[in-house]
Amino acid sequence: MQVTMETTEGLERQLKITVPSEIIEKTIVSELKKISKNKQFDGFRKGKAPLSMVSRMYESSVRQDVLNELMQKHFFDAIMQEKLNPAGAPTFTPEEIKKDSDLVFKATFEVYPEVTISGLDKIKVEKPTCSISDSDIDEMIETLQKQQSSWKESNDKVDHNSKVKINFEGKIDGEVFDGGKAESFELEMGQGKMIPGFEDGIVGHIKGDKFDVETQFPEDYHAENLKGKTAVFSIEVLDVLTRELPKLDDDFALKFGIKEGGIAALKTEIEKNMNRELKQTIKNKIKDMALNGLLENNEIDIPKALIDQEIEVLKKQALQQFGGNMKNTPELPNEIFSEQAKKRVSIGLLLGEFIKQEKIEADDTKTKELIADIASAYEDPSEVIEYYNKDEKIFNNMKNLALEEEAIDKILSSAQITEKEFSFNELMKK
Questions:
Q1: Position 128 in a domain
Q2: pLDDT digits (tens, 9 = 90+) for 111-129
Q3: How far apart are CA 107 and CA 356, in angstroms?
């Protein structure tokens, strides 16, 4: 086998591989003999059909199959010989194929980039600090109350805590525009779901009022034809509803699984959950800053094949949000996912090389700590721990996660870390 290599562009490589004709013809004869031995032919006992007859019938298709198999085999032999690490499937381009002639073909593919990690001491991480206050807990209780609340019709004036049922029709320069009209539309005030000024124009009105509200679409509005345009909405208030909050008593606590201790026990449980959420949020933010810093200080070439693979992964994840039903999902262009895919592939390559460079190994103790941390959020942690431990595939996934965390900790040990205080709400919304 003869092999010559050429660097065509960036990470792309091209191998010119020659397979001797003797190997091709010998392999074809071997395959034809297998057919003759194993296939029943009319007029002949099994295995007794002449090879010449079998050759006339099957040589063309057998030759094509053999050539494909030999290109695959000799490609893998060639990359082993040249010590290459392909980042995706190769494209084979055979030259003219003739019987009793050598097979000469080109294999075009990308290789993984050479990565050297540096600049860890230049990574800047602003570590969030936060403590949960009584007012944070009270605010969470209020949120839970709203979730359990009911609505009743009211003759009160509309305020930012009301829900209204309205008819509206919007016009720009006296013309109704697409999406600017609705009937019996239910709007919960104070949620910021409408364009600025729309809700403010309804506040203070009562059931039965008819009025106009002039407002302007934001310059960054998603519909190009409406950006920055002034619109006049004719609005009729059909109903005004006010929220009725449930009492904070033992029955309310019971709705959240608190059988004893009432509201005090509920607050304790809420604080515990908020602390768990806070810990995970801080951990994720620090991780993102560390990985972004790693990326900013280590520019690498990225194989297009890996980006394309990652785009397909992101597409599948997006389609799952539509229920996985391909018939009812929109066409998702690759451009939507391109930048995210590049970033994920880059971080994956850098982190993988860093783990290799630092000889970081997955630790079972760390993995079990990670599982225990996840299990603590469930009613029966021991059952969750058993589930993770008995399934080898799931445990190995957690082991990989633990390996990643070990690597993040190692990166942070060299990074420039400062602290910044946040309130609970600031941090959760940041």
A1: no
A2: 999 999 999 999 999 999 9
A3: 29
